[in-house]
TrEMBL record:
BP GO terms, sorted: cell redox homeostasis
Protein name (Swiss-Prot/TrEMBL): Thioredoxin
Domain (Thioredoxin): residue spans on this chain: 1-107
Entry similarity comment: Belongs to the thioredoxin family.
Amino acid sequence: MTAKATTSATFEQDVLQADGPVLVDFWAEWCGPCRMVAPVLDQIQTEHPDKITVLKLNVDENPDLAMKYQITSIPAMKVFHGGEVKTTIIGAKPKFALEQDLAAYLA
């Protein structure tokens, strides 16, 4: 299972109304570090499908959400739970570091 995409049209339902925690990966096609972190996020999604949902949001195609959530550099990952941002992670990190940042949701 790999991370699915969300858009401005589906964000409310996919993220804000989701039952459990949702990690949104704010990324762009031209962003090298974004491409580096994508397979790591796919692995986390595959290994913890019942604990966290990983979604990707292309900032070039959805600038309204990038502005709303103050995305000034990418990759930026935000964990939403109960419709609110609970955790923000900036920059590409190795898997173990991302898992440490997400430990509260993966336990």
